[in-house]
Specification:
By secondary structure, the chain is of the alpha+beta class. About 30% of the residues lie in helices and about 30% in strands. The chain is built from twelve helices and 33 strands. The strands form six sheets. Strands 4, 5, 6, 7, 23, 24, 25, 26, 27 and 28 form a ten-stranded antiparallel beta sheet that branches.
Length: about 600
């Protein structure tokens, strides 16, 4: 019995000691264990979690490709904050390398703009001649009977039967008989024939033959190419009536279109390096010797003219030409200039990402800037940057996406904005304009040049019918420059025969349409601001779409689904902030 009690006491003591040990392990060490586990999880999150710079909702445990767009995934920063600036985004060297982030130091320099011009070869208007009939009659026979034929001065162009000339010859013969007694009458009869452009040789031949001719030749007054025929065999013509148009092409004009906004950059005497589409591999240089003093009210362009010697006849009217002019404005001799790839547009604002370095590493802060002159591949910065600052010039969109992911201010991470209050009638009118714009966009999606021209012409017609008198005060002031931008861009698309040229102007048209949508609102339930980062050699471009499906107007069928929905604009005055739940990728259609 005592042995049993001793054994029971030993068991109870052992269980008690074991309980104390387990309690210490569970409760005494739990805080440290949980903290360690938590820290480990955080470290793992920071080191092993990867995301897409364009689709931050994607999270993956290791490196790879984005399942939506196929881009390389980048590591998620465990802490993207910079203690020196709560709005700064810190990026590790690895993340910058994977996102291909490149920066440029901003310096003060000369503002040189590169203008790209499109134009055509045209005949020199001063070398276009009209060949008249010098006497009345009926066209008996055409010796030159098609356009494009080359004629030489003095060549017979046609034969004309002229009863009046027959009568004049008979008068000449009668006057010859009495020329000794009536020399003035004989001279008058000869002069009458000379007034009808008969030569002395022709008159002497008539007198020698003594026979009246019934048909007479029309002789070419100049050498050149027949560019227009105005009569046919059997037609009756009057004295002085035009029968041919003859053009001398030994000199021609190159007429380049200069947009209204580009006129300050081009002057008489400017040097133009140009090429002709039908003469590949050849380049030429010319000098602008004339600029139209009046702008075409429909297309909003003026013509810049270059005179070209064409003795070898290589240049023919209506040939397409493209030229480049490099010029500068005296008012901007010393300016801050940034590449276009550094600037991101948010509708009403332009922003860049400024790089800074500290003991904590490299960080980037979004900075609003005021843009000056457009230099083609760069912008003059009117304010917002100082010389010596370093800005992101490649991978800007990736930095912006990382800022959005970290909850920092970014292009896509903005609060909703409110449009200007405008009358419903005006919003309905600009909604019609937006619908016409969608026609241009869809034509470019389908790579259809003609359809884009027709839709742009419709935009011009709709724009002319917009009653700006409905707007007052600030709304009216905001609409006026937009009206000009829309008209100019639509006119250029309507006139362009090259789809790539149309797409260049479509970018300007889209920025104006997006600005219009944000400022005034549309009477459409939802429209979408969409973005392609690869357009124009990775500079990126926006457009407005009636659908959240990505159909890229900048690439068409080549990269139809390249892009991303940035913002949703709702009916009325509300502009929604970007919301991936509201704008889901449509079944992986954002491929690049």
């Amino acid at each position: 019995m005592n042995a049993i009690n001793k054994k029971n006491i030993f068991i109870v003591v052992a269980v008690f000691v074991l309980g104390l040990l387990l309690g210490w392990l569970v409760f005494g060490g739990s805080s440290h264990s949980q903290d360690a586990t938590h820290d480990h999880a955080q470290d793992a999150e920071g080191e092993n979690t990867y995301t897409c710079s364009m689709h931050p909702q994607i999270r993956q445990d290791g490196p790879g490709d984005c399942p939506i767009c196929g881009m390389d995934l980048i590591p998620v920063e465990a802490d993207g904050a910079d203690d020196s600036d709560v709005n700064a985004l810190r990026m590790s060297p690895t993340a910058m390398q994977l996102a291909d982030v490149q920066t440029t130091v901003i310096t003060t320099g000369e503002s040189v703009k590169t203008l790209r011009l499109n134009g055509k070869v045209q005949a020199d208007e001063r070398l276009v001649y009209t060949q008249p009939a010098h006497f009345p009659g009926r066209i008996e026979r055409l010796m030159v009977n098609f356009t494009g034929d080359h004629v030489s001065k003095g060549q017979v162009l046609a034969y004309v039967y002229s009863p009046e000339l027959v009568t004049a010859q008979q008068e000449l013969f009668e006057a010859e008989k009495i020329k000794d007694t009536q020399p003035a009458l004989f001279s008058s009869a000869k002069e009458k024939l000379k007034n009808w452009k008969l030569s002395d040789g022709q008159i002497d031949q008539m007198l020698a033959s003594g026979q009246a001719e019934s048909t007479f030749p029309i002789l070419a007054n100049t050498s050149g190419y027949v560019t227009r025929m105005m009569v046919s065999s059997g037609d009756y013509v009057q004295r002085g009536q035009a029968v041919y148009e003859i053009t001398d092409l030994s000199k021609v004009w190159l007429l380049f279109d200069v947009y209204e906004s580009d006129l300050p950059w081009i002057k008489r005497g400017a040097t133009v390096d140009y090429s002709i589409s039908s003469l590949p591999g050849e380049t030429f240089t010319g000098t602008v010797n004339y600029i139209d003093p009046v702008i075409d009210p429909r297309t909003r362009i003026a013509k810049a003219r270059i005179e070209v010697s064409n003795t070898d006849q290589k240049l023919k009217p209506e040939m397409f030409a493209s030229g480049i002019v490099k010029s500068k404005l005296s008012a901007h001799q010393s300016s801050l200039v940034v590449p276009k790839s550094a600037v991101m547009w948010t509708g009403k604002k332009s922003v860049v990402y400024v790089k800074s370095e500290s003991d904590q590493g490299v960080s980037f802060v979004m900075r609003e800037v005021l843009l000056g002159a457009d230099l083609g591949g760069a912008f003059v910065i009117a304010s917002g940057l100082d010389a010596g600052e370093e800005v992101v010039t490649n991978g800007t969109f990736s930095v912006d996406a990382a800022a959005q992911l970290a909850g920092k201010p970014s292009m896509m991470n903005r609060p909703g904005t409110q449009s200007l209050e405008t009358p419903l009638a005006f919003r309905e009118q600009i909604t019609n304009l937006a619908n016409a714009y969608f026609g241009v966009k869809n034509a470019l999606v389908e790579d259809n040049v003609v359809a884009a021209q027709e839709a742009a012409k419709k935009m011009e017609d709709v724009l002319e019918s917009v009653n700006m008198g409905l707007l007052k005060g600030e709304a009216h002031d905001q609409w006026m420059p937009l009206n000009g931008q829309l008209a100019e861009a639509a006119a250029h698309i309507n006139r362009a025969d090259d789809i790539e040229v149309q797409r260049e102007h479509f970018q300007l048209l889209s920025e104006a349409i997006l600005d219009m949508t944000e400022k005034f609102g549309l009477e459409i339930d939802k429209v979408y601001k969409q973005y392609c980062p690869m357009a124009f050699d990775d500079e990126g471009a926006n457009w407005l779409s009636e659908s959240d499906e990505i159909l890229n107007p900048y690439f068409g069928d080549m990269m139809l689904n390249c892009g991303e929905v940035l913002e949703t604009y709702r009916k009325g005055l509300t502009v929604a902030a970007p919301n991936h739940a509201d704008n889901p990728p449509p079944g992986g259609s954002h491929n690049h």
